[in-house]
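Thread: Newbie trying to understand structure tokens

Hi all, I'm a second-year student working on a class project, and my supervisor (Dr. K.) asked me to get a predicted structure for one chain before our next meeting. I've only ever worked with sequences, so writing a 3D structure as a token string is new to me. If someone could post the tokens and maybe explain what I'm looking at, I'd be very grateful. Here's the chain:
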Amino acid sequence: MSTLVNDLLATLAFGVVGVLLMGVGYALVDMATPGRLHELIWADRNRNAALLLASNLAGVGIIVTTAIVASDDDFLAGLVGSAAYGLVGLLIMAGAFLLLDMATPGRLGEILVDPEPHPAVWVSAVVHLATGAVIAAAIS
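---
Reply by user tm_fold:
Sure, no problem. This is what the structure looks like when written as tokens:
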């Protein structure tokens, strides 16, 4: 029974770290988009903003999941590693977004708020996912 309790507490701790990191990811995407992200997605039903946010959250999930798996059942190392790798991943994703923004015509943040679906958002979304995968590979 104590193993179950320990595993449940570890799951709770990893879940909290993952949710906090996704919250940071949400804030970063919100900063990159003109206007309020929650209004763009939930009120305006903006698919561009939703796709970018979803890819960011998935990238964070990939990184945190890999850090947990790579922790070799060392709870503290796994927890610290998940938080550290997640933060590094978010910084790299933000940097990749800025580089993509500089390399493309116009402002990527403004494209995100366009009510019409835009192919550039798919490119940015794949950058988030690929970044998460690269960091995950570096962890394992």
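A couple of things are worth pointing out once you decode it. The chain has one domain: 2-139. The CA atoms of residues 63 and 85 lie 7 Å apart. Feel free to ask follow-ups in this thread.
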